[in-house]
Write a structure and sequence with these properties.
By secondary structure, this protein is mostly helical. It is 75% helix and 0% strand. It has one domain (10-196). The chain has helices at residues 10-17, 20-46, 50-99, 129-151, 156-191, 193-196. It is elongated, with a radius of gyration of 22 Å.
Length: 198
Amino acid sequence: MAARVRHVRPRDAVAGAQRGDGERRLQLLFTVASAAAVAVGLVADGSASSSATLWTAAGAAAIVGLLGLLTVGRLARRNTASTKLIRSLDAIRREATDRNEDLRALFVYDPGVEVPPRTQAWAPTKGGLVDVAGCATATFCGAAALLALLALDAGLYTVVTLAAATALASWLLQVAFVRRLYRRSESRGAADPALTEP
């Protein structure tokens, strides 16, 4: 009996198939961060008040941190769309090779091999785009807190503690979001027999 192949929306297929999409998003994040640093430098050069410079820098870091959060979410969604596309194509390949075993030699990848899920632990040691964007975003969020607290003339211990706590909280929220997204995507894929049936 032929397995029903789940259709992938063209938008998801294009987003998952374009490997350069994630690199461009990360490049945009770092370009905006560089532009924000230049803008803060220009404000600092023309401002007599260090408080105004600190507030400007804190605002710029917060905006870049927000853009980073959006980038992490988009990169994680791109990963799940890519996995979904690969699994759908593998279901088509399995169906073709089940009907004609001679076709198996024509495929670059063995259609019988299962695509691993994206539920692995998320850590900067993995070096993926989501991990790099997450580290950068946590750094920007921590920097925004650090600069805002310095502008408020908080004590050094308070500044360092709260800035580190902000960076850590940002990191942990991103990890929880990405893991939840990957798990939800995996549970949807497991519920579809066309994507899991060998």
